[in-house]
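Lab notebook, bench 4. Still working through the backlog of constructs that have no structural model yet. Next entry is a single chain of 402 residues. Request: give me the structure tokens for it.
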Amino acid sequence: IENSNNHKVKEIKFIKLIMFSCFICLGFINHIGYYLILTSSQHFAIKLGNESLIAFYPLALIFFNSFTRIMNSKYFINISYFIRVIFLSLYFCTGFISMFFILDKMTNSKNTNLAFWLTMFPSIIMGTGESLGEVTILGYIATFKGNYVSGFNVGSAMAGLSGSFLSLLLKKYNINLKNVYLFLTLFAVLYLFIFMITICGYKEKKNYKKSGQHYVTITEMNESLNCKNVRLGISYANFHLTNLALTNFFQYTICYCFAERANKYGFINSKGTIFAKNQYEAFLLFYEFGVVISNSCLFLIKHIKNLEIFTYIQGINFILWFFEAIFGYISNQWICFIHLFFVGLCAGGSNVGLLNHLFETRYINQNYKELCLNICEYFMDWAILISSITSLILDNTFLKEK
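Model written out:
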């Protein structure tokens, strides 16, 4: 009997490991298109002759996200997760293939202005797909017992890191970006396949340990969007949405406005290195590396009682990078790299810590958690939207000559 119990424990641990790995992969695939566009936006804008309009890419990625989350909360929330993932797999395929054809046909065209605006269409698909996929997979994770939110966030952070690294390689070795998007269509197919593994893993786990409920195909317990539930959701998740919104505003403005302007200044030790002509991509690479590290440390972050500390620190980082964008007072690029790594640590720590707290807290009923998640994501979207608009205004006014 003892040997049998040990065997069951080992089986459960193995299944947990497989499922954790699957959620890393789902997080990566869900965000890779989004981050690839975001990190290569400067490359896009320069190649298509519209560098002053670089902020339109993050704007296109998040402009319709709130509408997507509203539709999810109102109409999709009680559709099975499996059906939603099938749709997402096809949706991502559409975005990757359309970007491939646009880049294939239009980058060699004389009408670069038209090419620039056409790339907004797949950008919107990547943004809304990432948005719907995030609330779908995280809502699915909320029905599990275990820290799988960390796995999904590690995957999304790895997508950001990969996007920055790919952008760096594209610029240095002049790799054709269209081929990358064609290859990513395979990832969209894997998205559905990996999700099916998590369903099988969860069912298998239940064969060894009879506990909890399984909401993979039936989600009728989820509360949908209405006036009463919105008020309750905001009251339940007020702490989470406030801090998530503020930290996202700070970090997006730092990375996609202030750091891009700071890149224009010369650094005394930049000559002769791989970063000499690719400093902005390197900035984002170090930032995303910090996000990956902090997302991997949920086992430590979940013990922090005052998670708002990340918001305060990120606010200080915001002020420091604002002055760097104006004056360029940092002469050593490695100071910028280390500081952006720290910004990434705070960003990932805030995100994974607050989401885990939302899922684990007992004062929010299970049937309200996906709705609360959606509400938090609304506020995050609006924070990023305000950040993009702020960046667009600053890029063409106050920071135009910087």
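Notes after review: The chain has a mean pLDDT of 81. The chain is about 75% helix and 0% strand. Flag for follow-up if needed.
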